Each structure stands twice: as structure tokens, then as C-alpha cells.
Automatic annotation (TrEMBL):
<dbReference type="GO" id="GO:0005506">
    <property type="term" value="F:iron ion binding"/>
</dbReference>
<feature type="binding site" description="axial binding residue">
    <location>
        <position position="148"/>
    </location>
    <ligand>
        <name>heme c</name>
    </ligand>
</feature>
<dbReference type="GO" id="GO:0009055">
    <property type="term" value="F:electron transfer activity"/>
</dbReference>
<dbReference type="InterPro" id="IPR012127">
    <property type="entry name" value="Cyt_c_prime"/>
</dbReference>
<feature type="signal peptide">
    <location>
        <begin position="1"/>
        <end position="22"/>
    </location>
</feature>
<dbReference type="GO" id="GO:0042597">
    <property type="term" value="C:periplasmic space"/>
</dbReference>
<keyword id="KW-0408">Iron</keyword>
<feature type="binding site" description="covalent">
    <location>
        <position position="147"/>
    </location>
    <ligand>
        <name>heme c</name>
    </ligand>
</feature>
<keyword id="KW-0349">Heme</keyword>
<keyword id="KW-0732">Signal</keyword>
<dbReference type="GO" id="GO:0020037">
    <property type="term" value="F:heme binding"/>
</dbReference>
<dbReference type="InterPro" id="IPR002321">
    <property type="entry name" value="Cyt_c_II"/>
</dbReference>
<dbReference type="InterPro" id="IPR010980">
    <property type="entry name" value="Cyt_c/b562"/>
</dbReference>
<protein>
    <submittedName>
        <fullName>Cytochrome c</fullName>
    </submittedName>
</protein>
<dbReference type="InterPro" id="IPR015984">
    <property type="entry name" value="Cyt_c_prime_subgr"/>
</dbReference>
<keyword id="KW-0813">Transport</keyword>
<dbReference type="GO" id="GO:0022900">
    <property type="term" value="P:electron transport chain"/>
</dbReference>
Amino acid sequence: MKKTRLIATAALALSITLPAAAQMSVEDQIKARQGAYQFMAWNMSKIKAQAVDGDIAYNADQMKAAANAIAAVANSGMGALFSPESSLDKADDTRLKPEFFEQPEKAREVGMNFGREANKLQAVAAEGDKAALARQFAAVGKTCKACHDNFRAK
Ligand code: HEC
């Protein structure tokens, strides 16, 4: 009984999410993911300015908001914005390498690492410790870079 219900729930979840993702054009996938990355970079730059460089006075609430935004994007299911048709060998105006689909295990690994560190960033920012946030900022930055080094063209 329980199992049947689980499968039904999973099927329902799929029927809701898959068509929505499939309807998105390749152009829209590219625009949405580039916008998402820019938005994360903007929030990362706020953390850098306040927690790392100290250019701007540390404001714990702003740091929390920035980290929450990054974690929200990281947990939003961005995988739906990546289709093989949207890589740079098949589409215009993108730097996504086809290797992203040719090396699915590596892609999953860098994606999981990023998600894990983004969630930690959110937790650390919530505690309000500037030095800890600076350290976690660096940890997240490494996971951004790992994906770029593997899957983003210059
Ligand atoms: C899972 C892989 C992955 C992770 C993790 C990742 N990126 Fe990227 N990023 C990409 C890819 C691929 C592109 C190129 C997207 C395109 O052109 O379609 C990109 C593009 C960008 C861009 C340029 C967007 C534009 O306007 O073209 C910025 C800025 C960026 N990433 C910042 C970040 C930051 C900051 C993080 C971490 C907080 C991050 N990325 C994490 C893969 C990743």
C-alpha cells in the first residue's frame, strides 16, 4: 500500500515537473541559467565585499539575505535548465560545454558539491560570524570554479 502510494506520488511529481521543463525553449534555458548565475555572482560579491575584503561594513542581515538567495538558486532544480541541445556545439550565445552531458558523473559531482557548500553558506550566514562566513565564501567559490573549469568555455 505504502509503496504504491509512493510510486503514485513520484509519478505525479514527474508529471508536474517534466512537461514544464520540456516546454522551455533552448533559448529560454540559456537565458534563465545565465541570469541565475549572474544573480548568484551578485550575491557572492556582496559577501566578498563585507565578509572578505571589508570594503563595506559587515551587516549580518544583508549577509543572511545574500546567502539565502544563493542557496535558493542552488536548490531550485537548475538541472532543468540544462539540455544537450543547449550546449555550445548546438546552440548560440552559450558557454556550456558538451562535456557536461558526456561526463554525467563528473557533472553530478560538481553540482552536488556546489549544493552542499551553498547550503552550508546559508547556515553559516545565519550564525553571523564574519570570519566563518569568509571561510565558507571561499569554499563555495571553489565549487563554482570547479564547474567552470570543467564545463564552461572561456
Ligand atoms: C554546475 C556547474 C556550475 C556551477 C556550480 C556554477 N556555475 Fe557558473 N556557469 C556554469 C556554466 C555552464 C556557465 C555558462 C552558462 C551559459 O553560457 O549558458 C556559467 C556561467 C556563469 C556566469 C556568466 C553568466 C552569463 O551571463 O553568461 C557567471 C557570472 C557565473 N557562472 C558565476 C557562478 C558563481 C558565482 C557560481 C557559484 C556561486 C557558479 N557560477 C556556479 C556552470 C556552473
